[in-house]
Amino acid sequence: MYSIIVVPPPTTEDRTTPQQLRLAPGERLTFGRGAACAVRIPHEGVSRRAGEITAQGAFWALSNLSGRQTYVVENPEGAGEHIKVGPGRLEAPVPFEFSRIVLPAAGDLIAIDVWAPRHDYLRADGDMEGTTTAPAFSVDRTKRYFAVLAALCEPRLRGEPHAPLPTVDQVVERLRPHWAAASRTSVQWNIDYLAVKLRLKPGPEEADPGPRLNGKKESLVSLALRFDLVREEDLVVLTGSGGAAR
Amino acid sequence: MTEPYAVPVPRGYRVGGWEVREPIATGAFGSVYEGRRRDGQPATAALKFLPTGTGTPRRLTHLRELVEREVQLYRRLRRPRLIRMYDTLVVDDPERPELDGATVLVLEKAQTSLSALLATQPRPPSGPALLAQICEGLAQLHRANWVHGDLKPANVLLMEDGSARLADFNMAAELEGTHAYTPAFSTPDYTPPELLWAEIGERGRRIRPSADVWAFGVLAHLVLTDTFPLPGGTPTARRDAAAAYARGTDDLRLSPELPDDWREIIRDCLTRTHAERVTVEPLLRRVETAAGTARSPRPSLARRLRRTTITAAVLAAGALAALGYGISDWTSDDNGPAGDASAPATVSPATYGAAELRTDKGVPAPYRVLIVESAHDCAQEDVTPALIAAMLKAESNFDPDLSDPANDEYGIARWTPRVLRYWMNADGTPADTMPQPPFPPAESIPAMARYLCWIAPRLDAGLPGDRRVLIAAAYRTSYDKVNDAGGVPAKYRDYAARIAQYLKEYTPPGAM
Fold it and tell me: A30 with A83, same domain?
């Protein structure tokens, strides 16, 4: 029942798969140099108790427990969008779905990623009120993950129900005109994030040690089409008139 | 109506024998209108238009799938507490491409919905009675192995006589009024915490009947107190409160206005985990007691037994195989075959219900499950497995193929077709046509239990003798003949004596 995922800065031990810490609403996570912190950042320039992340429903808040440093929370997809949390500020609400806490540390910048995949968005149908039956998914049609999802769904949305899915390279190709920085890694990151966001049930094959990325893409597309997350009219995000172009 | 209608249909539009009147409700996939016709019954109905004729090929298959699921469900589930479907029609109107090919479901028309009632009259005096009926509807769905998945006031429709019926139980199309949803849609206030952010597979979210029980708890609290059980001014705040409660960081604080019995019921619906939640059958009994309403008809045994009997058949085959290998003395063992160390730990049909029905007196193993379960489906304490077994012994000596055309009696329970007709359906409705023998035990025995269950409370309280024997005598003749005779009529004394003897044989020591 978690609503917030914290990805601590990579340590030497887990360079391949970064750790993910999941917080349920109301749960707290402290970070800092001290041994008592849930996330230890062994860097001389970081306070012993540097800060605290609190999950509040679908969003989160940051407390800056340091004496002198101001922390910046960036929206990595937000073209410079950021907030500043000064020293001593407690529980500053963070509105982004993706965030990166940047800690200045003696000349270095240390980043902690925080995802809030449960943010709610209005459906395309637009008739949702408090008591209506609501979709179990909520996607932001302006985010890059939506463009990736649309690119994956495109062949099948164009009327070939059993068309083979595009490869990651083809998706990169498709998105590059409007997303110059698109790369295999960034597209793959978005696919992995979508699996978390859409709460894709790990299939039995996930027990295998090697990642079965093909299976994941297939499941995402099938889910997205089945529940109308991506529709024909959404394919405009691929042509650049949608919000994904930045 | 503030929302645009998903399927605009002009007033006066004709489809089949129906004329479209006022709009009733709409959702993302379809819209409901009132329909009238000049001749035939019923004269009014709710017409639900589901557009299947337009759209791109992919959306078309998607919508067709939704419609098919909904229609199938209505066809298969006809229960008194569920809205009924009379007919399905297809619009053939090339002039109107937006309607051409649309599927129209002709549904029973309701007067209003519970949400409309609560809006005008919070805490309605009829609340407890309505809750009992809603719970009965849930029980009817759950017994048929369906989960509603979106129980809330808008999906409880109220008929002209004020009684409640469930609608929108197909989870296939999204609509308010007479409608349904995809399995990954829900209403946050009625969603159990384990489903709030549940994982979703390609086929949708997995949902259990306990989700309906949670929703019923929320709905009951709302109907009785006009507040939600979890605190918060918005659905989002209440969702977070539900999450905090489920994680154990917060306690459940129900309204102090609730009467004690309802408080206990709602508490058992709103447990932190689905496993702790009360199931619908005991829930229904408690709700009916709290509401002070009459007991509803007992559950259908057939579906539950289907699985049990398969297991029983397999196990029986195993037992026969064991006999073939020379372990032949198990029936003479007072404790049944459990004495055989190699026997599987699961309960075999040969020992099923051993606490209430002896295993060593020749009650055939294949019928034990049916006998015990049928008796358990009756709340009358005198209708016991031993009584049913004694009667089957007296009626047919457990002969499933008995055929006595001279007396018009057939099968293991010696059913007469014109009588069986009234008892063969689990929901208490008479069969549409006269049943024809053979009457297999799976039909005969539950029907017998239903009939006995009906007889038991109709026998006068002061009659002398064993109530169970009196019930059996009334089965042979009728309950008023037994009442008139002030006991077993002379003509049936022999029969009664045999029943008494078998009852004694089949009842384990200390059971009665």
Answer: yes
d(CA A150, CA A243): 13
| Total count of domains within chain A | 2
Domain B14-107 has CATH 3.90.1150.100: no
CB B32 within 8 A of CB B26: yes
Tell whether A172 and A215 lie within a shared domain.
yes
In contact, A244 and A142? CB cutoff 8 Å:
yes
Q: Would you tell me the crossing angle of helices A144-157 and A168-175 to the nearest 10 degrees?
A: 110
Cross-chain Cβ contact A1/B243 below 8 Å: yes
pLDDT on residue A223: 81
Contact check, Cβ <8 Å, A159/B240: no
pLDDT digits (tens, 9 = 90+) for A105-139: 888 889 999 999 888 877 644 443 434 555 567 78
Ordered by start, the domain boundaries in chain B are 14-107, 112-291, 310-506
Query: Which residues face B169 on adjacent strands?
Result: none
pLDDT for B35: 92
Residue B132, token pair as written in the block? 């009992």
Rounded to whole angstroms, the maximal C-alpha distance in chain A is: 60
Radius of gyration of chain B (CA): 27
Q: Is residue A139 part of a domain?
A: no
Three-state DSSP at B176 gives: coil
Q: What span, in angstroms and rounded, lies between the C-alpha atoms of A89 and B6?
A: 49
**Residue-range definition of the domain harbouring residue A193:** 144-239
Across the interface, of A161, A226, A231, the residue whose CB is closest to B202 is: A226
Residue B308's identity, in one-letter code, is T
- Here the tokens at position A87 are 């020293």
Do residue B193 and residue A1 have CB atoms under 8 angstroms apart?
yes
Strand pairing class (A39-40; A28-32):
parallel
In this prediction, residues A190-203 reach a mean pLDDT of 79
Q: C-alpha dihedral over B60, B63, B64, B67, to 10 degrees?
A: -160
- Is A107 inside any structural domain? yes
Residue B44 bridge partners (DSSP): B36
From the candidates B197, B239, B245, B272, which should be mutated to test the interface with A, based on the most A CB atoms within 10 A?
A: B197
Q: Decide yes or no: CATH 1.10.510.10 for domain B112-291.
A: yes
Cβ distance A223 to B202 less than 8 Å, yes or no, reads: yes
Instruction: Please state, in angstroms and rounded to a whole number, the distance separating the CA atoms of residues B205 and A117.
Output: 18
As a whole number, the mean pLDDT across chain B is 79
Hey, what CATH topology would domain B310-506 get?
A: Lysozyme (1.10.530)
Q: Which residues contact B272 (CB under 8 A, 6 or more apart)?
A: B193, B245, B246, B248
CB B240, CB B230: distance < 8 Å: no
ipTM score: 0.72
List the single best residue of A56, A133, A222, A229 to mutate versus B (max B Cβ within 10 A): A133
Work out the average pLDDT over B248-259. Answer: 90
CATH number for the domain harbouring residue A105: 2.60.200.20
Joined tokens for residue B124: 């309605």
Residue B175 predicted with pLDDT over 50: no
CA–CA distances in Å: residue B301 to residues B138, B371, B415, B435, B443: 16, 11, 18, 19, 10
Beta carbons of B369 and B305 less than 8 angstroms apart: yes
DSSP A2: -
The DSSP bridge partners found for residue A113 are: A7, A100
The last residue of one of the domains, among A115, A131, A160, is A115
Cα(B180)–Cα(B169) distance, integer angstroms:
6
* pLDDT tens readout for residues B372-403: 888 888 777 889 999 999 999 999 999 989 99
pTM above 0.80, yes or no: no
